[in-house]
Write a sequence for this structure.
């Protein structure tokens, strides 16, 4: 079987698994929501809070997209900030294809007319994703005890915390070593292999953490825009919501076959939030309220993504002079600024 046929077969299998997974989760959600009697849950929709929740979602991605553009510039891909940010936001629609491979591919295709070499564009896309997911996993492990959904001996596992923290940094070190070894076997005029600095990747964790803080505020607005007598704004509530949103976002990424984390993210968020409402509503209603929050958050974020993507798609930047990919492109690795 040729490589092209294997890829098609794998994509078909992933699509079938994704459809089955989403169908199973959707059927489960339908069963829960079908049992909800109208007017029995303390809910009301406040659009004036859901709109800024969507804006905060876009700002969270601005933190992550800014880090990706910094990676591009570090690797010599001198696209403008608008071109880089526009490419990032539009490429996010690729996550709805099972396997999540389409996101870096879309970035490579979109930046090629602007002189972006495929290798550094693809490699930096992977580093940006791994760094932001590592930041989310770090926050999820750090604040997992606040959710009260796991026994302390498991939620206080500091070994997992440091392993997750070291993921992007370890990859950066390994990549630099591999680049140095490969350089000895390549010609003196060959294009340097992409190798982000450990210092820049460390800053990427800060970019990532800032994004999750904005997602936590978005979740907080969604809760208060949906639930009557929701908990007041406080640092305790923010920390709990930060742990919940980081955990569900990383879970949606880890379940590779779920398009955009659909189903996986909502399931984990429902599980993480239900404890906040159990004492006031009872376990059954608390689960129903948490599920409705998760679904409302998904709709809010998706609408914001569609609006931003449509606007950015229409406002097209001027093309930069193309760069021939067979030419040597000098890269000047400057020390990144905070």
């Amino acid at each position: 079987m040729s490589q092209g046929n294997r890829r098609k077969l794998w994509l078909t299998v992933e699509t079938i698994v994704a459809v089955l997974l989403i169908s199973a989760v959707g059927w489960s959600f339908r069963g829960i929501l079908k049992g909800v009697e109208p007017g029995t849950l303390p809910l009301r929709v406040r659009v004036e809070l859901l709109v800024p929740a969507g804006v905060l979602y876009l700002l969270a991605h601005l933190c992550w997209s800014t880090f990706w553009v910094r990676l591009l510039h570090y690797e010599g891909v001198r696209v403008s900030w608008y071109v880089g940010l526009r490419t990032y936001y539009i490429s996010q629609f690729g996550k709805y294809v099972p396997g999540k491979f389409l996101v870096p591919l879309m970035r490579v295709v979109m930046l090629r007319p602007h002189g972006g070499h495929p290798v550094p564009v693809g490699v930096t896309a992977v580093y940006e994703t791994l760094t932001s997911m590592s930041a989310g996993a770090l926050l999820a492990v750090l604040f997992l005890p606040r959710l009260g959904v796991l026994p302390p001996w498991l939620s206080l596992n500091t070994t997992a915390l440091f392993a997750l923290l070291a993921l992007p940094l370890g990859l950066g070190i390994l990549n630099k070593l591999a680049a140095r070894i490969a350089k000895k076997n390549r010609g003196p005029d060959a294009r340097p292999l992409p190798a982000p600095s450990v210092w820049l990747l460390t800053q990427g964790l800060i970019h990532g953490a800032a994004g999750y803080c904005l997602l936590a505020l978005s979740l907080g607005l969604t809760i208060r825009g949906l639930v009557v007598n929701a908990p007041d704004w406080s640092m305790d509530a923010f920390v709990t919501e930060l742990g919940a949103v980081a955990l569900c976002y990383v879970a949606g990424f880890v379940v590779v076959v779920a398009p955009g984390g659909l189903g996986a993210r909502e399931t984990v968020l429902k599980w993480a939030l239900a404890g906040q409402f159990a004492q006031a509503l009872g376990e059954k209603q608390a689960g129903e309220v948490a599920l409705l929050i998760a679904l409302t958050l998904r709709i809010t974020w998706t609408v914001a993504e569609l609006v931003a993507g449509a606007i950015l798609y229409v406002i097209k930047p001027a093309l930069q002079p193309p760069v021939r990919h067979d030419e040597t492109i000098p890269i000047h690795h400057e020390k990144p600024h905070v």
